[in-house]
Each structure stands twice: as C-alpha cells, then as structure tokens.
Design a protein that fits this description.
Two copies of one chain form a homodimer. With 333 residues, chain A is an alpha+beta fold. Chain A folds into three domains: 89 residues, Malate/L-lactate/L-sulpholactate dehydrogenase, four-helix barrel (Hypothetical Oxidoreductase Yiak, Chain: A, domain 1); 177 residues, Malate/L-lactate/L-sulpholactate dehydrogenase, NADPH binding domain (Ribosomal Protein S8, Chain: A, domain 1); 43 residues, Hypothetical oxidoreductase yiak, domain 3 (Wheat Germ Agglutinin (Isolectin 2), domain 1, 2-Layer Sandwich), CATH 3.30.60. Helices cover 42% and strands 18% of the residues of chain A. In chain A, the strands form four sheets. A seven-stranded mixed sheet of chain A has the order 2-3-4-12-5-8-9, sandwiched between helices. In chain A, helix 4 packs parallel to helix 5 and helix 6 crosses helix 7.
C-alpha cells in the first residue's frame, strides 16, 4: 500500500478519461466520484476498480459519449435510458433527478435501464442524504450467485443502498446480497488474505474463506442463506419492471455485465412539518446503538456510516491508501 | 398436529372476536385474514398466534374499536394513524389505500404510525400482487436483536415484504432481519425441535440451534451478520420518519410491543404500456430459476412463493394443520 493524495488521484483519473474521449465536464465529475470513493475508504470500488472501468471503455462496453435521457414520465416516477453510457454519471444524473422530483412531490423515483456498473453504490445514497432526503436505490447485475438449492449462478448480488439524513451525518448502508461483494473478494485476493469468515463454497462444494475459490465457483454465501438469494431476485425483477430494462437473466446472456437496470428513490424529509421531531428521534436511536454493551470489553458499537467522515478526513490529510500495483497500472493507462 | 377445516377455523376466530366487542364487518375480515394465513401454511403467524392476539386485546394493548385514519397527505404519500387499533385491519386498510393511490398515480405510499403487530406480513404483499401492483412493505418492532458487536437487544427484526405480480402467481418474499423470525422460533419450541441451522447465541454467547435459548438471550443471528442489523435499523428509521411514528428505541420503552410504524408501497405495473413485455421477462426469470442445476440430485429449485397456492389448495381440501394444544386454547377463549 502506498498513499496517494486526493488531488493527484483525481488528476490521473481525469488525464486517462480525457484520453478516452470523455467530454471535459463529464471527466471532472466522473473522476471526482471515483476519487471520493477511495477517499472515503471504499478502495475496492474506487481506484482499485479504475483499470477495469477503462478496459470496459476500451472494449466499447461503456460509451463515454452517451448520457442518460428521460424516456417516459409517470408522475413522480420517471423512466430513463442510460444508453450504455458511463455508469457513475448515469447514476448521478438519475439520483439528481429523483431528488429534484422529491423536492416538488415528497417522493421522486427514477428507474434507469440500459446503464453500466455504477462503481460505489453508496455515492448516490449520500447525495440524497446530503440533500435532506432518504435515498433508497439498487441495481441488478450479471448472475453471480446460485438460487438457493442450486449450483449454477442465476441471481445477481444486486447491491441495495439506504441512506438517511441525520444531524450526526448521513446514515448509510450499502450492501451486496452476498456476504462479501465481488469487489471486496477481489480486494482480499489482491492482498493475499483470507476472508474474515467463510464467504462461500469452492467448486467442490466446501465452505471456504478463500476469496479466489469463491470467485471461481460463483457460489458466494448469500446473506441469510435462502433469504439473500430471494431478496436479490426481487430487487432484480422490480428494477427491470419499473425501468422496462433487462433482468439478470437477460444481462447474463450478454457475456459482459452491461445494460443493467437500476432504481433511485428519494423521499424529502423537509416535506414534513415534524422534521425536527424526526431528527430528534433518529438521534436518540443512534445514541442508543452507541450505548450498546459491547461483546468485547472496550469495544465500540457504531451505527452504519459513523466512521465515513473520519476516514475521509484522515485520507485527505495523509493521502489515500492505494495498492501499489494498481496505482502503477493507472499511471500507465 | 390436528387438521381443522378453514370454515371451522374462521368461525371460531369470529366467535372469539365478537365476544371481545369487535364490530361484525371487522370481525369477518380480521378472522379471514388470520385463517388465510394458516391456510397458506404460515401457521406461526396465523392460528398459532391467535391466543397472543386475544391476550393483547384483553390487556387493552389492541383496541378493537379503533381504526386507522388519514392524518396528512403529501401527494402520493399519505400519513395514517393506526390509533392503537387492530394490526391486521390497519395494515389491510393501509395497503388498500396505497393500491388505490397507485392506480391513479403509478406509485402509492401509506406510512402508518401507532399501529399493532400485523400478524402475517406477506398478506398485504399478496393484496398488492393480486391487484397488479408491486408491493413493498415493512414494519418496525420492539428491540429483538443486538446491534452488531453488542450484547443487548437494540434493533427490531423488522420484517420486509416484496411482492411482484406474475402470470405464474404472486412472487413473494416475507423476511425478518433475523435468520428465523420470533414466530418461527416459537414454533420450533412448541414442537420441541431444534432449528435446522444455528439461529443465534445463547446467554453464554455460544451459537446454538436451541430456539428457546435464543428467545431468552434475544441474540438471534441476523441475516448476513453485520448487514442484517444495519438493514433493520434503516427500515426502522425510514418507517418512523415517513409515518411520524415511533422508532424501535421508543417502542422498546413501552414494555409491550405496541404503537409500531409501518410503510406500505404499491407500484402499479398497469401504468406501463410495456406491461406484457414485463410479464414475459419475469416469466423467463422464473423459468431460469426453476432450471437451476440442483445441489441434491432430483431436487427442485423454486422461486419465492411458488408453493403457496399448492399448500392453500391442499389445506383447503384436507384441513389446516394446527397444534392441538393451541386449538384447544382457542376453543376455550
């Protein structure tokens, strides 16, 4: 691990994206979103994914010239077409629009089809939270897990994000339907470390903490066993139905993961005249979590997202921890 | 286990509810919802919960004379107050209204505060599905699980339901944030059986398949470990914020579980002109799940809810399997 400054990282991303023909304004936002992801400690979905992202551009899966556009309006729900454009820019545009709708109508929903991997899902939840809105969003993916009782990958791991604005900061969950996301497992492989607990089965059907073996078998452990695969299927079908886009079953027939379906929901808490009471209630809940009796003496029980701003501040000051091999690869792009 | 006919079961529920002063029309619907729950095989949340439900009425926690009423309207989202009325009737009224809103506006949301345990969560998802709508709904509960890393119960297990209409029937998930719901664990205790896999920790901190030990420790295993408790917290805070109602933290200070907050979302698929394409896509996904290579030779991989109508038909024909002790208790109420 080396440490790279935020400005240096963002600058390198901009240089590479411009070289791929991305428009200057888009380049600034796209590079910033990826650098922010690493800055906040989600290394697997930030710099460490950048070379894969550029490879998808070079192979024509991601089209840097296209943007998401609205194709239909159903009151507070709009359908947008991502036109195989840049995943994080499409998601940013969609969540921006959902927030705008929520500011006028309490609720705003954008259902986006035909888009690409959105990098860090939590990014768009934080956007909602910082705008005073609850954000709920999810994506489907290529098939990455068997259905419960099956051997062959049939369902996506379809990350789900929920973000809630609070006086203490944005409360945030950002979770794949497998115990470990593929990005996280790739991180363990890169570092040559075992997973902290068994995260799936190997091709021989044995539970294992060897991330590489799970990436090969495509049999990660779903959250809650039978519950995780079922929830993944439902998120997939809701996203495809609302957006009029592809299901995991259809995406999986394309080879590469592309043309995925996503849903962005914003709910504006400022629409309610008891907004202060809501904040007070949330603060009491967070305090109660922090007041938990810890399993390990001296341990601290935190609410989801509690450490985010601390990590951000530390990485801004010291530089962003980055895998040296990945950084060299980025410099060579 | 004995078998009780659907009509006999519903009749006994009606007799008992009328004796508690419930209005005749409410009695018919309330009894039917509970009998349907057992009819569809969810015994733990149907007849087996009925004596507890009556006890809550007798102790004044559930007020059979009160109904949910709308208290505020924010476009497609309405806030309702359950007035400490009957949980399943309040939930039925709320989902009915959400569906009505969705029929006019594509999306309909009712956020309900101050209500009681809704019995079987899936009931209201099926309502949405049968009306051609996607249904997404959840409730908060009294604290039933520690936050991750903690020992004392701080978060609810906050069941989440997603239902999707399909030509093959309503696809349905109905899941608590613990691996096993409290109702299910109580069922295992009643039958004197161990859980099929470890479902939580005992008071000494050992993982166990002894449901009674987990009910005592209030340390069930959350789905996806750290993910399940975080998701539970988010569902709680969203429900309380949208409804203006109590959080798990506040409910837990009341002693009995009461005055909970719930959210009912309906999304009308008939609003979309590609409804047939959506159905075709869903059918292809369900067929793909069923075509999984099974882990066990001869096994069948099913989609969530696939067996529901079969169980319903079988129990209608043969009678509903019911714990004999519970049935005697119901007859004596």
């Amino acid at each position: 691990m080396i440490r790279v400054t935020y400005e240096e990282m963002k600058g390198q991303f901009e240089r590479v994206l411009l070289s791929r023909g991305m428009d200057e304004g888009d380049t600034r936002l796209c590079a910033q979103l990826i650098a922010d992801t690493s800055l906040e400690g989600v290394y697997t979905h930030g710099a460490h994914r950048f070379p894969t992202f550029i490879d998808l551009i070079d192979r024509g899966v991601v089209n840097v010239k296209e943007r998401a556009v609205r194709i239909a309006s159903h009151g507070v729900l709009e359908r947008w077409d991502g036109n195989s454009g840049v995943g994080n820019l499409n998601a940013h545009a969609s969540m921006s629009r959902a927030i705008e709708l929520a500011k006028s109508h309490t609720i705003g929903i954008v259902a986006l089809k035909n888009t690409n991997h959105w990098m860090r899902p939590g990014t768009y939840g934080i956007m909602a939270g910082e705008a005073g809105c609850i954000g709920i969003l999810w994506t489907n993916t290529i098939a990455l897990m068997p259905a419960w009782g099956g051997l062959d990958a049939k369902v996506g791991n379809n990350p789900l994000v929920i973000a809630i604005p609070a006086k203490e900061g944005v409360i945030l969950i950002d979770m794949a339907m497998s115990l470990f996301s593929y990005g996280k497992m790739e991180g363990y492989v890169r570092e040559g470390k075992p997973l902290p607990v068994a995260g799936g089965w190997d091709t021989a059907g044995n539970l294992t903490d060897d991330a590489q073996a799970i990436l090969e078998s495509k049999r990660p452990l779903p959250i809650g066993f039978w519950k995780g695969t079922s929830l993944a299927l439902m998120l997939d079908l809701v996203a495809a139905s609302l957006s009029g886009g592809r299901t995991t079953e259809e995406i999986s027939r394309l080879g590469d993961e592309q043309g995925v379906s996503q849903v962005f929901v914003a709910m504006n808490l400022s629409s309610f005249d008891d907004r202060e009471e809501i904040e007070r209630r949330i603060s009491a809940s967070l305090a109660s979590i922090n007041a938990s009796e810890p399993i390990e003496a001296g341990g601290q029980v935190r609410w989801p997202g509690q450490n985010r701003l601390k990590i951000r501040e530390e990485n801004l000051r010291l530089g962003i921890p980055t895998n040296e091999g990945v950084w060299k690869a980025i410099l060579a792009l």
